Amino acid sequence: MGIRVKSDVYDRWIKTVSARRLLALEAGWLREVVSGFHGENLAYVGVDDTPRFLKRSQLRHPFCLGLPWQKNHPCAARVRDDAWPLPDNSIDVVVMQHSLDMSVRPHQMVREAARVLMPHGYIVVVGFSPVSLFGVLRRINLFSTRLPWVVNCVDSHRLRDWLTLLDFRIESVTPALHLWPLRLISEGSSRRVDRLLHGSGWVPGNGYILVARKTVAGVTPISPQRWQFLPVGFGGAVPAAFSDGSVSSRIPYTLRSEKVTDNES
User: Fold this and answer.
1) What are phi and psi of 70, to 5 degrees?
2) What are the pLDDT digits (tens) for 18-64?
């Protein structure tokens, strides 16, 4: 599997003022989202090297999963887009902060997150919006090898379709990062503007926060069926009665399906 982001590129970007501002803004919003969840396990897969907002989690065991290019990133285990070292239905909440943007196979990563989530578990995705000012700047920097311009933005509508096909119910999609990566007079004023505009629909957001819940419908067990041949000789003709009382002998044999009830078994 190819890797879109290189380790040295990530290490340089994560220390920039723009990246720290991005993560600080998103940490505040994620803190509010995560604090409303309860359960045992929360898996974080994202670009934040120190996701302090996890300390506000109500889940008992929050932990980080590292991406292949996060070599200096402390984590419980490393994951690939198509292979997470976690059993099926074992996680209550998965938080994916720009991990889809950094992936060459975002659809497969979504499938892995869906696989490890328990029924009725939550997935939280933070992503960049391609239909935004950021999307325009990314096209201008199309041949750049630096973050954040090398990302592979996944549109929120496209992500909604993927999740719906995987039996998720979309709880909310909140536009975010209306000003970032632009800067006003100071960093402080820039952050205040983004916090003020957070969730606003009248200004296009450069990012979004999507929350969805895995709602796998329960499977109704099907009672075993006992197929019985009507008592006829092998290959003989069996009269088949119609509603008017007439019969037909053109059917060589007839199968009758009977459900086995508790009284019969």
Assistant:
1) -95, 65
2) 999 999 999 999 999 999 999 999 999 999 999 989 988 899 999 99
The C-alpha atoms of residue 96 and residue 141 are separated, in whole angstroms, by 25
Residue 141: phi and psi, rounded to 5, are -100, 35
Q: Which amino acid is at 228?
A: Q
Reduce the DSSP state of residue 212 to 3 states and report it: strand
Spatial CB neighbours of 63, under 8 Å, sequence gap ≥ 6 = 41, 42, 43, 44, 75, 76
Instruction: Report helix, strand and coil shares of the chain as percent, to nearest 5.
Output: 25, 25, 50
132: which DSSP letter? S
Strand-pairing partners, residue 241, are 247
Question: pTM of this prediction?
Answer: 0.79
DSSP 46: E
Q: What is the DSSP letter of 80?
A: B
Is 111 buried (19+), middle (13-18) or exposed (0-12) by CB count in 10 A? middle
183 alpha carbon, distance to own chain's centre: 31
Residue matched to tokens 């509010």 = 32
Domain 7-214 -> CATH class: alpha beta
pLDDT of residue 184: 84
Which residues, including other chains, have CB under 8 Å from residue 165's CB and lie 6 or more apart?
Answer: none
> Which structure tokens are listed for 172?
């909310």
Measured between alpha carbons, how far is 145 from 226 in angstroms, rounded to an integer?
65
Least Cα distance to 72 among 116, 23, 160, 7 occurs for: 7
Residue 75: other Cβ atoms inside 10 A: 15
Phi, psi of 78 (to 5 degrees): -105, 145
The residue assigned the tokens 């990530």 is 10
User: Are the C-beta atoms of residues 43 and 86 closer than 8 Å to each other?
Assistant: yes
The ranges assigned to domains in the chain are 7-214, 225-259
